[in-house]
Structures are given as C-alpha cells and as structure tokens.
Amino acid sequence: MLLDEKPELNITPLVDIMLVLLAILMVTAPSIVYDEKVNLPSGSQKSSSVATLKSLLITVNEKRQVFFDGKIFPLSSFPDNLALLKTKFNTDEPVFIRADKNLKYDDVMFVLKTVKNLGFTKAALQTE
Fold first, then answer.
1. Element (H, E) at 112
2. pLDDT tens-digit profile of 4-36?
3. Cα(8)–Cα(61) distance, rounded to whole angstroms?
4. Domains of the chain
5. How many of the other CB atoms lie within 10 Å of CB of 68?
6. In DSSP terms, which residues pair with 65 in a beta bridge?
7. What phi, psi does 61 have (nearest 5°)?
C-alpha cells in the first residue's frame, strides 16, 4: 500500500437505501388518514330494536328545523336548546341523527359536532 493513496468512501449503497426508504414513504403517506373515532351503537343482532332503546332521536328536515324531545327548534338555536335539555338524557346512551338528504353537509356535521361537544359518547347517522 502506498502512503499517498487516500481511502475512497463509497456512498452508493447509502444512496440506494435512502431512495428505497423515500419510495416507501411516498407510497404509504397517502394512505395515512387522521379521523375522529365515533363510538357507534351496537349492531342489530340483539333482540331489542331502536324503538325500545332509551335513546335520543334528532331529526333535521330540509327547512333546517330540528325535532327532538317532541319540540321543534331552528338549527341556529339547536346547541343552546340541547344543552338545556341535556339533563333529561343519559350521555352514554346512543344518539340517532336523521337528516334530510337535501341538507348541506355542514348542517349535518354541525348537529353531530354539537352532540359530541355536549358529552354524548355514542352518535350515529341514520339512513334509509
């Protein structure tokens, strides 16, 4: 070995490994989804039906009127009215939300967000 020679550092394997890791990251990143966990009520395999459960049923019609507990409220006053009547319901019992299909997505999410913010732990959107 000659004294003048400098050792060469081969970085090709390092670059190859980094490119493979980058490719794996680029493939898996779009599939990572951050969503809020919603505790839905149990399935329909039990003998009890939705009508026999002590649950809160909230219905929103196309005119943005909210029906619950036998009363009608405008959508804008729904959070305040639900907060006042919250003591009549158990927050661990399921809440079923029925919304007209012609409503805006924001209106349905407003109702769902209000229900979740008031401490109801189980919420479900009903469909036909």
1. helix 105-117
2. 778 888 899 999 999 999 999 988 887 765 443
3. 75
4. 51-126 (3.30.420.270)
5. 20
6. 74
7. -95, 180
